[in-house]
Amino acid sequence: MAVSLQLRLGQYLRRRRGDMTYLEFSRKLGISVASLHRMEMGQQNVTLKTLDHLLKRLNCDLQDIFGERSDP
Q1: Domain boundaries, position 23
Q2: Which long-range contacts (C-beta less than 8 Å, at least 24 apart) are formed by 63-66?
Q3: By the 8 A CB rule, do 16 and 9 touch?
Q4: In sequence order, what are the residues at sequence separation of 6 or more whose Cβ sits closer than 8 angstroms to the Cβ of residue 45?
C-alpha cells in the first residue's frame, strides 16, 4: 500500500527533527508548533507555498522528502 504524501512529509520532518523539541524545530522552520505537530502526524495539508518554505528552511529538495518516482 502506498504511503500518502502527507505521511511521507510527516516521516521526513520527524527524522529531520531528531532530538530537537517541537518548539526548537518549529522555530527553525518558521512555523507554529501546532502546525509542525499536525504535519508530522499527517493531519495537515500543506500548500505549495508552505512546502517551498519548508524546502528552503531544511535546505533540501522534493526528492529528499518524496523520493524519485518511476513511470509505470
Answers
A1: 5-64
A2: 64/12, 65/8, 65/9, 65/12, 66/5, 66/8, 66/9
A3: no
A4: 6
Q: What is the mean pLDDT of residues 6-26?
A: 96
Q: What is the pTM of this model?
A: 0.87
SS3 letters for 19-65?
CCCHHHHHHHHCCCHHHHHHHHCCCCCCCHHHHHHHHHHHCCCHHHH
Q: What CATH number is associated with residue 27? A: 1.10.260.40
Classify residue 50: in a domain, yes or no. Answer: yes
In a domain, 71, yes or no: no
pLDDT in tens, 21-38: 999 999 999 999 999 999
